[in-house]
Amino acid sequence: MTKNTKKPWQGRFSGETDKFVESFTSSIAFDKRLYEYDIQGSEAHSMMLNSIGILSDKELKDILSALEKIREKIEKDGVVWKDSLEDIHMHIEHELIEMIGDTAKKIHTGRSRNDQVATDIRLYVRNEIINTHESIIILQKTLIKLAEKYSKSIIPGFTHLQVAQPVTFGFIMMSWFFMLERDKSRFLDSYKRVNISPLGAGALSGSSHKLDREYTAKLLEFDGITDNALDSVSDRDFIVEFISNSSLLMSHLSRFSEEIIIWASTMYNFVDLDDKVCTGSSIMPQKKNPDVLELIRGKTGTIYGQLVNILTIMKAQPFAYNRDNQEDKPALFNCVDTIIMSMQAMNICLENLKLNEKTTKISAKKGYSTATDFADYLVKKDVPFRDAHEIVGKVVAYAVSKNLDLDELSIEDFKSVCEKVEKDVFEFLKIEGSVNSKKTAGGTSFEEVSKQIKKAKNIIKEYEEK
Fold first, then answer.
1. Which of 26, 66, 83, 450 is the most exposed place for a label (fewest CB within 10 A)?
2. Angle at CA 435, nearest 5°, toward 387 and 415?
3. What gap in Å lies between CA 345 and CA 354, rounded to an integer?
4. How confident is the model at residue 424 (pLDDT cuts 50, 70, 90)?
5. Are 450 and 413 in contact (CB under 8 A)?
6. pLDDT (tens digit, 9 = 90+) per residue, 411-420?
7. What's the gap between Cα 119 and its chain centre?
8. How far apart are CA 147 and CA 456, in angstroms?
C-alpha cells in the first residue's frame, strides 16, 4: 500500500482491498458534508487530550493550526476525495498527517470512528434543527401577512369537500400557522435529546485513558454527555425523530399544497398564482400548472420513504456499531435538503398568491352554508337542537326544490315549517352574519381571527427575542 491509501486498520491485513469493495464501502461521496462538524470534534478532542497531558502545548498548537488549514482547503475544493480513504474522518486525518506528520497520529487516542461519527451527526442535526426552525418561522410570517390582508375575506369552509360553513381566508391562514407551530415545537423539543455528547465513548465500551468527556461536551456546546458508551455509539433515535418530525411537517405542506391546487383550478377559481410559480403545458397553450405545489405534494412521499428507510435500517441492528449505520446519512441528508427546499418553495408560492374575493364570497353562499346558523337561531327560540336540525333539513329541501338560497325564501316559507321564526332570521342567514356569530375562542369571526393573528405575532416575537 502507498502512503496515500494506507488504512487505519491495515495492520491486521496482509492483502489489499479489492477496488470494487473500496468503492462499495466508501461513504465519502455523501459524508464529506460533515467536514465542519468532524473538524470541530477533532479540535475539541485535541484540546481535551492536551488538558490530560497526552498532547503537549506545541503539539496542540500544530494540530489546531493544521485543522484550520484543512477547513480552508476543503472550502476551496482543494481536497481530492478518495474511496480508498473511505470517509470524511479518514480524509481529515490523512490531510493532518500529510501536514504535521507523526503528531497527527496522536489525535485518535481514546477515540473511535464510532463515537466520532455519532458526534458529527449530532452536531449536524443540532444545526439543522435550528435551520428548520428558522425556515418554519419565515413561512409563518408569510401566513400572518396573508391572514391580515384577507382577515375579512369570506370563503367557503368545507367538510368532505362539500360546502359546510362560511369562514374567512384569514381564519384558514391561521389554521395553517398553528399547524406549523406544532411542527416547530416538535423540532425544538427534540433538540434536548440531540444535544448530548457521545464523544469519548470509544468504539463501544469507553476508554482506558482518563478522558474528560465533560470538557469536550462543553467545548462543543453540548448540554451534557451520554450515560452509557454502548448506547452512545448505537443510538440513532435522534435521526429517526428528526425524519419523523419532518414527515409530519411535509404532511402539512402537502395538505396546504392540495388546498391551493384545488382553489387555483378552473372550477373553483378561488386564487390566482403568479406566473413565476407556475409552468405551462408542452401541448396545451392555455395551461397554467401549479407544478411547484404538486412537487411539494410528491416530495412528501420521499420523506415518508426515508422514515421507513431509517426505521428499517435500525430495526435489527445488534449493538454496537454496524456498517449498516453508514446508510443513515443519505436518508438524513435527503430529508434535510427536501424539507428546507419545500418550505422555501411553499413560501414563494404563498407570497405570489392572490385571493379572488368576489368569487369566494359568491361561492360561500352556495350549498346552504348558513343552515347551521338557522338551526342555532331556532335553538335560541327554545327549539331543541335535534328538532331544529330536522326543521332546517325540511327548509333546505324546500329551498332546493325551488332552486332558491335560504335567504331568498319568504318569511311565510319559514313560518310554514316553524311558527317561531321571525324576520330577524334573515340576519342569521347572511354569510357575514354567520361568520361574525362564531365568537367562541378560536372561531372565524373577524374579532377572533384578529386575536389569533395577534397571538401568532407574539409567538414569533418571543422566538426572535430568545
1. 450
2. 35
3. 16
4. confident
5. no
6. 998 888 888 8
7. 22
8. 10
Type of residue at 87: D
Considering Cα of 164, then 166, then 169, then 170, what sign does the dihedral take?
A: negative
pLDDT digits (tens, 9 = 90+) for 129-176: 999 999 999 999 999 999 999 999 999 999 999 888 999 999 999 999
Q: Which amino acid is residue 226, in one-letter code?
A: T
Active site (catalytic) residues: 160, 281
Give pTM, 2 decimals: 0.91
Q: How far apart are CA 406 and CA 429, in angstroms?
A: 7
pLDDT at residue 103 greater than cutoff 80: yes
Domains and their CATH numbers in the chain: 3-109 (1.10.275.10), 120-150+181-207+231-355 (1.20.200.10), 364-465 (1.10.40.30)
pLDDT tens digits, residue range 194-211? 999 999 999 999 999 999
Amino acid at 183: D
Q: What is the pLDDT of residue 15?
A: 61
Cα-Cα end-to-end distance for the chain: 54
Decide: 261 and 290 in contact? Cβ < 8 Å: yes
Tell me the CA distances in angstroms from 179 to 170, 251, 255, 379, one per residue in order.
14, 10, 11, 33
Write the CA distances from 462 to 146, 196, 347, integer angstroms: 21, 25, 21
| DSSP-derived secondary structure letter, 267 | T
Q: Is 160 left (phi over 0), alpha (psi -120 to 50) or beta?
A: left
DSSP strands (E only) in 276-412: 353-355
